Amino acid sequence: MGHRSALVTLAATSVGLVGLLVVNSTQTDAPAAIQTGTAPPTSAPPTTAPATTAPTQVTPVPKQTTATPPAAAIPAVYIGRTAGREATLAIAVNGAKAVAYICDGRRVEAWLTGTFTSGQLVLRSRTGERLTGLATAKDASGELTLRGRSLRFTAIVTGPPAGLYRAKNTTSTIGWIVLPDGSQVGIDNDGTPAAAPPLDPATRSATVNGVAVSAQSIDGDETF
Fold it and tell me: Cys bridge to 201: 5, 53, 65, 161, which one at CB 3.0-4.6 A?
């Protein structure tokens, strides 16, 4: 009976030891399993596409050109005076042609013909007088020679009844410049130049030595 009790005690002790070993083995192996486990993959940071820069638009710089004065209205008549008021002048342009008349209203006069090209006036008389200048849609200016004198002039565009008129009969050639204010300057040249008689612009008529004469409105394309 005593011997059996000793065996039972020994067996119980052995079972307790085995239980302790099992528990200890479980506790020591669990951390190893956690440590050797595969770590969950980490997500890579999102890739940001590089910002695209819109191409810079270059606005072409316009090429600068030399300004050209506007051409005169065709036909046109310019009326003005020389800088020192030595003479009055009228210039009529029509297409590529031009006519000018210069006079002092007493004894000195000249009729000139020439060209009008790209705003440039170039005229000459049979007796050698010259006129050169620039004409725009509003005015004209330049230089002329009269009886050997070099004179500057300016003139403006005018409209009827202002203008340039001419009459010719068997004895006389008469020129008139009718200014914008209605005044007139002209010469009756029958070999002895003198002031021209009054002209009626409405009828383009005048009386010379008791004889009625008809005047022509000069447009610029005439030849003398």
Answer: 161
Cβ–Cβ < 8 Å for 77, 89: no
Measured over the CA atoms of residue 30, residue 32, residue 35 and residue 37, the dihedral's sign is negative
Find the distance separating the first CA and the last CA of the chain, reported in whole Å. Answer: 175
| pLDDT one-digit tens code per residue, 104-137 | 999 999 999 999 999 999 999 999 999 999 999 9
| Range of the structural domain that residue 183 is part of | 163-217
Number of domains the chain is built from: 2
Question: How far is C-alpha 11 from the geometric centre of its chain's CA atoms?
Answer: 122
Structure tokens at 142: 């330049």
Q: Provide the token pair at 95.
A: 């297409």
Q: Are residues 92 and 153 in the same domain?
A: yes
Residue 207: inside a domain: yes
Both structure tokens of 117 = 């090209």
Low pLDDT (below 50) residues in the chain? 1-11, 15, 17-39, 64-69
